[in-house]
From TrEMBL:
The keyword Repeat does not apply. SUPFAM superfamilies: HAMP domain-like (SSF158472), Nucleotide cyclase (SSF55073). The lineage of its organism: Bacteria, Pseudomonadati, Pseudomonadota, Alphaproteobacteria, Hyphomicrobiales. Residues 347-485 form the Guanylate cyclase domain. It comes from Hoeflea poritis. The chain crosses the membrane at residues 7-27, 238-260. Residues 97-124 form a coiled coil. This is HAMP domain-containing protein. CDD domains: CHD (cd07302), HAMP (cd06225). Residues 261-313 form the HAMP domain. Keywords: Coiled coil, Membrane, Transmembrane, Transmembrane helix.
């Protein structure tokens, strides 16, 4: 039997069991629906009507309180007007700014305004009365209609018991309205009966509130009962689902174990094969003696392994020319970001051997290739360890860059500076290997390197013709990195970085400000810095040199030539080549005079 037939038989049995479970659950959910329907269509709307009645009654009471306040105000104004008419001016009206006639007119206006408010409150009071009657009528109509449509017998009985309660509430409210009307009239006539009426109204309000609360409790009880029944039906449906699901699961497991028993051996071979592939072994092959689906799977697996083997051969070959991470992105997936390119923040590093032309003249072509290969191998290792991409080798020069997604965004400058400092340290090791590499035992060349790092925005992507492309970076940041590498010749330094590189990497490394110059091809000045090492590994001499040099540089930038010369001369004890450069500049300034528009910026004419 084919595997699909076996699986279909197991699925059919599980389907029958689950069908029974669904049927029972549907019935129980129907009962739940009936209970919920009573809640949603009957009890909750009735609750809303009761709440509306309670709210409108409360609003009526508020109108009565406002009427009492306004009528009291009218009474006080009438008394003041009578006193003014008799020539008696109340003390609180003796302002000295109004005549008797003006004061009388003002009080008349206030009385008219209060009388208008009284009329509005009386009108609203009657409107509230009509709304209460309408709310009661709607509630009674809703209950009458719901009795005929209730889904359960318990719901119909509960609804029938609510009608007498609503009728009682309606009657009590009518009594309360009559008493409130009498109370308003008593306020208007200032009758002593109002105190007795207030007591009666309080008793009527308490009784009405009790009836409303009783009705609320009845509805809440009906709602809770319906909810509990719905919950019980839902619980029963859940348990039957669990039992039947467990039963179908057990049967499925038993039947599946029988099917799996016949497939276990080739599947184990397949698992072992995948583990070998995961471990990097792409030489294994699976037996494909069976003609069923497992045999097809084994053949597909063998084809996949063969494809992976060829892909790895391609990656290994091209990984010698292009960074393997780029190769993986371009071969394994059409990565549009890698193909089309986009503008990103990058750190670009340029490095080459100082005085390479004169050094190369001392070697044979074979010896020169041996030296360059060793140099490039040693200097490339820190770059790749620090997640950098080596863009290209140009003779003895190295161009590399750091950018997302090959390193974490924001870490470009820190990683680039770390690689540069490691390269500077490795150059000493290369000098020790020169006798073995070149075969020379004396007159060995003085091998040194220069590195420039610039950080900023650049276009990153596959750039070139339709047939030949290079994954590289373009832009002013790249040009600045090359100019900084060349600027090392001017200052006698090994590594120079731009201001943005210094800012992004200053949390881990210490830098010395070198100059503020305009490089070749630029019109705006660029601040350049020399990395001195990690913050936690600096010695006292390095720190002292940094402080002395930057103080002298500040004096030089501000035009304080004497102070600058004294400061740079004090740096000579540290054998600082940069200080010698500034002393030469100061000598030129003494000879030719300082520029009239001096702003501390130096023009670099060399590339």
């Amino acid at each position: 039997m084919k595997i699909p037939h076996k699986i279909f038989g197991i699925a059919a049995l599980v389907f029958v069991i689950m069908g029974a479970s669904i049927t029972y659950s549907t019935y129980k959910l129907y009962l739940v629906s009936k209970e919920v329907s009573d809640l949603a269509e009957i009890f909750i709307p009735i609750s809303d009507r009761i709440a509306e009645i309670d709210l409108e009654i409360a609003q009526q009471e508020i109108h009565v309180e406002r009427l009492e306040k306004h009528l009291t105000g009218i009474k006080l104004i009438d008394e003041e007007l009578q006193e003014l008419a008799s020539g008696i001016v109340p003390r609180h009206l003796l302002s000295g700014f109004e005549t008797i006639e003006e004061k009388s007119a003002r009080l008349e206006d206030q009385r008219t305004e209060l009388q208008n408010l009284v009329s509005l409150e009386e009108r609203d009071f009657e409107v509230r009365e009509a709304r209460v009657d309408e709310a009661v009528e709607r509630a009674e109509a809703l209950i009458a209609r719901a009795i005929t449509t209730a889904q359960t017998e318990e719901g119909r009985d509960a609804l029938k018991s609510l009608l007498p309660q609503l009728q009682s509430i309606d009657q009590q409210h009518s009594n309360l309205h009559s008493q409130l009307t009498l109370l308003i009239e008593a306020f208007r006539q200032d009758s002593p009966m109002r105190f007795e009426l207030e007591k009666l109204i309080e008793e009527e309000e308490d009784q009405l509130a009790l009836n409303l609360r009783t009705t609320w409790e009845s509805i809440a009880g009906f709602t809770e009962s319906a909810a509990l029944k719905a919950e019980e039906h839902e619980r029963q449906a859940l348990w039957i689902n669990i039992i039947l699901a467990a039963l179908s699961g057990v049967l499925a497991l038993v039947l599946c174990s029988i099917v799996i028993k016949n497939m276990l051996k080739p599947l184990r071979q397949l698992v072992a094969g995948t583990q070998e592939v995961e471990a990097g072994n792409l030489t294994g092959q699976l037996e494909t003696s069976s003609s069923d689906e497992i045999g097809d799977l084994a053949r597909s697996f063998n084809g996949m392994v063969e494809g992976l083997r060829k892909t790895e051969e391609i990656k290994d070959t091209f990984g010698q020319y292009v960074d393997p991470r780029v190769v993986s992105g371009l071969i394994g997936d059409t990565n549009m970001e890698l193909v089309n390119g986009e503008k990103k923040v990058v750190s670009v590093l340029f490095a080459d051997i100082a005085n390479f032309t004169s050094i190369s003249e001392r070697f044979t072509p074979g010896g020169l290739v041996t030296l360059i290969n060793r140099y490039l191998s040693m200097m490339s290792e820190p770059i790749t360890e620090q997640q950098g991409l080596i863009d290209k080798y140009i003779g003895d020069a190295i161009m590399a860059f750091w950018t997302a997604p090959f390193c974490e965004d924001g870490e470009q400058a820190r990683l680039a500076v770390g690689a540069a400092l490691k390269d500077s340290a490795l150059i000493e090791k290369l000098r020790e290997e020169l006798p073995e590499l070149t075969g020379l035992r004396r007159d060995l060349p003085d091998v040194a390197m220069r590195i420039g790092i610039a950080t900023g925005e650049a276009v990153v992507g596959s750039i070139g013709s339709e047939k030949t492309k290079n994954y590289t970076v373009m832009g002013d940041t790249v040009n600045l990195g090359a100019r900084l590498e060349a600027a090392n010749k001017v200052y006698g330094t090994s590594v120079l970085v731009c201001g943005r590189t210094c800012a992004m990497a200053s949390g881990e490394f210490e830098f010395r400000r070198i100059d503020n110059l305009i490089v070749k091809g630029k019109t705006e000045p660029v601040a350049i810095y020399e990395p001195l090492g990690q913050l936690t590994a600096l010695g006292e001499p390095v720190i002292e040199l940094k402080e002395r040099f930057e103080a002298a540089l500040d004096a030089f930038s501000s035009g304080d030539w004497a102070k600058a010369e004294t400061g740079f001369d004090g740096c000579r004890q540290f054998n600082d080549p940069v200080s010698e450069v500034y002393l030469e500049r100061l000598a030129i300034i003494r000879r030719d005079g300082a520029p009239k528009d001096w702003n501390g910026v130096w023009q670099l004419d060399e590339k």
